[in-house]
Amino acid sequence: FIEYGTSIAYLIAFAFSLMIANFFIKEEKKIFSIIYYIFSVGLIFVGLEEISWGQRLIGLESPDFFKTFNSQEEITIHNLEWFRHYLHNIYILIGFVGSFSWCLFRNKNNEFVRYFIPSWYVASFFLPPLIIFTIIEYTNGFGFFISKDQEPVELILSLGFLFFVITNFFRQSLVKDEECLPIEN
């Protein structure tokens, strides 16, 4: 059930990210728009992966390949035997970057920092995945974390991405509003 919430958060983040990319196109900021289009593809990919590409929703049977090589026997890439062993380290890296990059890049006047580095208040959504996946990956979970404990942490991470893009969407709105203000003499 939590997977559906996670998926919805990623899909909403995808929509906001797409709007941000379109805004950058209108502003003729091609590199920013390309990065956000790629980010959008990543968000929709993860959102659909989280619900097994709709497999359970439409009652689709898993092909033999996924029954054999997927740890959950679902139509997903992230649970394939040769990929899932890297997944925790990917979460740890994302958690670290999302949690601490704002400390390294503090120049909010830099447009790249403003739109690509999570603000300190968004960083709190990236810290739980960093901590939990580090514990699971490098300590065997202290004997009390199990694989299902990952789902709430994945939801928190998806909310972090959602708040990140919503923050940037409203940042763009503020920029747009400032451009529309009349010039005072």
Describe the structure.
The protein has 185 residues and is mostly helical. It has one domain (2-180). It is 72% helix and 0% strand. The protein has 9 helices and no strands. The chain has helices at 2-26, 30-50, 55-58, 64-69, 81-104, 111-116, 120-123, 127-139, 150-180. Helix 1 (2-26) packs antiparallel against helix 2 (30-50), helix 1 runs parallel beside helix 9 (150-180) and helix 8 (127-139) runs antiparallel to helix 9 (150-180).
Q: Which sheet architecture does the biggest sheet show?
A: none
Domains (count): 1
What is the H-and-E element order? HHHHHHHHH
Treating each run of at least 4 consecutive H or I residues as one helix, how many helices? 9
Q: Rg to the nearest angstrom?
A: 19 Å
| Quantity of strands, as a count | 0
For the termini, the CA-CA separation is 58 Å
Shape: globular
Structural class: mainly alpha
Strand content: under 5%
Low-confidence spans: pLDDT under 50, at least 5 residues? none
Overall average residue pLDDT: 89
Helix content bin: over 70%
